[in-house]
């Protein structure tokens, strides 16, 4: 199918070297990077390794670099700038947006918890029991009335 080979080259990581050579041919070292390798690159990799990865890695690895750079987050501004220059994605802005979303979600959760905590019952259970247990009495007794005419 058209585009199938591009999907295999860019997004599928073929582990078997023989199959990989038949389908893709020679690959760059960045092709075989795992999530752990990318985390190591983000946290401790040199700038040259970062640039090589941006230049030679397949699209699937670049997508994983972007995702992990936002999640960890990436703190090296030079790496952020290189990512922006090479791929057009502003990692710093994405990290800020993620933090804003998390802060908003936390504020909503706290507000909901506060609303549940401050709501009080209008009728207390003790008051309800007193009304239920009270004997039913007439409000008036016959002694307060004067009978004027019988019959």
Give a written overview of the molecule.
It contains eight helices and no strands. The longest helix is centred in the last third of the chain and has 28 residues, at 91-118. The model has no long low-confidence stretch (mean pLDDT 84). The chain has a domain at 33-119. The protein is elongated, with a radius of gyration of 36 Å. With 151 residues, it is mainly alpha-helical.
How do the SSEs run, as a string of H and E? HHHHHHHH
Please identify the structural class as seen in this structure: mainly alpha
Would you identify the regions where 5 or more consecutive residues have pLDDT less than 50? none
Compute the number of helices: 8
What is the general shape?
elongated
Nearest-integer average pLDDT = 84
Total strands: 0
Largest sheet: none
Report, as a whole number of angstroms, the end-to-end distance: 108 Å
Beta fraction of the residues? under 5%
| Rg over alpha carbons | 36 Å
How helical, in percent, are the residues?
Answer: 55-70%
Topology:
Blueprint: H1 4-11, H2 17-23, H3 35-44, H4 47-56, H5 59-71, H6 77-87, H7 91-118, H8 125-133
Short description, anyone?
The protein is mainly alpha-helical and 151 residues long. It has helices at 4-11, 17-23, 35-44, 47-56, 59-71, 77-87, 91-118, 125-133.
